[in-house]
Amino acid sequence: MAGSTPLQKRELEDDNENSSSMRTAETMLRLLPMGLCVVALVIMLKNQQTNDYGSITYSDLGTFRYLVHANGICAGYSLLSAIVAVVPRPITMSRAWTFFLLDQVPLL
């Protein structure tokens, strides 16, 4: 910057470093649920019970099929939001509110 003072340049560099570390933290926090969803999905797919009356798997129960699909959707959303979060662009209020509202959808 041509008309900047050394203090302004230093503040700009600090903002870039803080933004980069925040972006990394946000990306990691968005990838963590994806891993947990995939682990839950695999456990539910592999789980089966056998007793005197026969065996039962996840595909025999509609509720478990629903949960497997829900875990897959949550894992996909977490991956997509992590990819969007890692792209370096300025954070705007509309982007922050969009992420916030989309993050609340699984809670409904």
From TrEMBL:
<dbReference type="InterPro" id="IPR006702">
    <property type="entry name" value="CASP_dom"/>
</dbReference>
<keyword id="KW-1003">Cell membrane</keyword>
<feature type="transmembrane region" description="Helical">
    <location>
        <begin position="28"/>
        <end position="46"/>
    </location>
</feature>
<dbReference type="Pfam" id="PF04535">
    <property type="entry name" value="CASP_dom"/>
</dbReference>
<protein>
    <recommendedName>
        <fullName>CASP-like protein</fullName>
    </recommendedName>
</protein>
<feature type="domain" description="Casparian strip membrane protein">
    <location>
        <begin position="20"/>
        <end position="105"/>
    </location>
</feature>
<comment type="subunit">
    <text>Homodimer and heterodimers.</text>
</comment>
<feature type="transmembrane region" description="Helical">
    <location>
        <begin position="66"/>
        <end position="87"/>
    </location>
</feature>
<feature type="region of interest" description="Disordered">
    <location>
        <begin position="1"/>
        <end position="22"/>
    </location>
</feature>
<comment type="similarity">
    <text>Belongs to the Casparian strip membrane proteins (CASP) family.</text>
</comment>
<keyword id="KW-1133">Transmembrane helix</keyword>
<dbReference type="GO" id="GO:0005886">
    <property type="term" value="C:plasma membrane"/>
</dbReference>
<keyword id="KW-0812">Transmembrane</keyword>
<keyword id="KW-0472">Membrane</keyword>
